[in-house]
């Protein structure tokens, strides 16, 4: 198939290489015109499918590592842009048809020897204002359906509200929001003040950043709707971890040699990124843990052990994942404390008035999820936190399902603790974060003892490091912390505001489709929702629906989602739970809806 005949316009002619910018642009335009053809891009154009959106000049974004340099660092000219100086930092991966191809990388700048992603607002602004050549449209496969549905849902405003209408970087304000009010995370003010935030992302380019999305299951194109369980990793994260092991691997903090310095720098730089990502006051407030579960256990074993006693009360909501129930139960049993539960209404939203009644002078801690993994409900954590503080209680927010969907600022929330898992925000497994207010962390005892967390040890006595080292005993998951930093770079490059807008459209589209299928009962219909469309189908076990979807290559979770109390509140033991990320499309939702509709029509 000879379709692509790019004009060489970036000086690549001298090298005899194809012009990647032109190819990327043409590929993007080509696949935008072919519904459902996003996957083909990874097969036809493997060399041009990875990294950032194609509109940025590859010459400024291509990194090829110079393996011959003394320190194995990429060669960086005065411009700060790594140059092509040898082999790629990432291994070639097998491509369709058995060919393998090296991959271009899209990074700008350098940090501790490792090139960092270009997230600068200038760069985003250049994309958003169409200054770059070939500004891409919001090339969403299925955007016509999306517009039609949004037109029905928002008849008065749809002409300007659909994401597809924002092509070309116009700063059109969306007419719909995830939620309104104090905790509105679609914050219009910064978006209006900074037109770059209005920059749409190119869905085809985004999908090509995630190699696993090109997988096939029994010959069918994989559809990944199990994002609430875990998210997939962009190539930049995979490459960053490889780079760590190839060029930086060492234990941190202790040894005095070059690799120890590189590893320490990479690890601490990731901590800084996480602090910025969460809006923390300082990186000393960021503790690396294995994930949200370990984070909640850390708070239970430190804050809980020190500040919660017999007769004290811990409040959780009915929405909680087991990870935010069991550690408090264990603590309550040990200490003689009492657990109280905020009820939810029939839509799955927490009842603030009932919550107010639970608060009293014995309340020591309120531990709530920001987004429910089973229902998708976004809880009013601003109000919950303020009300808890009014009675002197501390607040832990479980952000496991929140950070990949909405902008979080722990200082604006005034959270005392905030936890999440890296693997749910496009980062590696086995790494997560506890944010804690510095003044509070300094009052807490360690929870595990060992190396790294001590200042001085004798057989009689140990002095501990301040936070965060005090809570990071032993060798941590260094490489994955660094990989999580790369995931944060990636998410910031797309922009959480863009992600929120697009995912909201996906959720509306899926919800609308599900509602039209006889026998479907949605579980969780709160006005404020993110990403999750839990449902049951009359006369089918949830496992049967999950299997029928899997037979078509569509991955959803069916089961109790580690949140049995909230499902039982709705009279069910299990649901089918498609959950969306910004790399999903309306075409994929159509495939999913077709299976559910077929099952509904062929009722047993
Ligand atoms: N909290 C919520 C809301 C979750 O959805 C999950 C996982 O699904 C967790 C906590 C636990 O996360 P992890 O298993 O990564 O520790």
Automatic annotation (TrEMBL):
Pfam families: Aminotran_5
CDD domains (UniProt xref): SufS_like
Catalytic activity: (sulfur carrier)-H + L-cysteine = (sulfur carrier)-SH + L-alanine
Residue ranges of every copy of the Aminotransferase class V domain listed in the record: 223-592
UniProt keyword Isomerase, yes or no: no
Polar residues composition-biased segments: 65-74, 81-90
Tagged with keyword Transferase: yes
Enzyme Commission identifier(s): 2.8.1.7
Swiss-Prot/TrEMBL cofactor(s): pyridoxal 5'-phosphate
Keywords: Pyridoxal phosphate, Transferase
Disordered: annotated span: 47-104
Family stated for the protein in its record: Belongs to the class-V pyridoxal-phosphate-dependent aminotransferase family. Csd subfamily.
PANTHER family recorded: CYSTEINE DESULFURASE, CYSTEINE DESULFURASE 1, CHLOROPLASTIC
Record protein name field: cysteine desulfurase
Organism: Undibacterium umbellatum
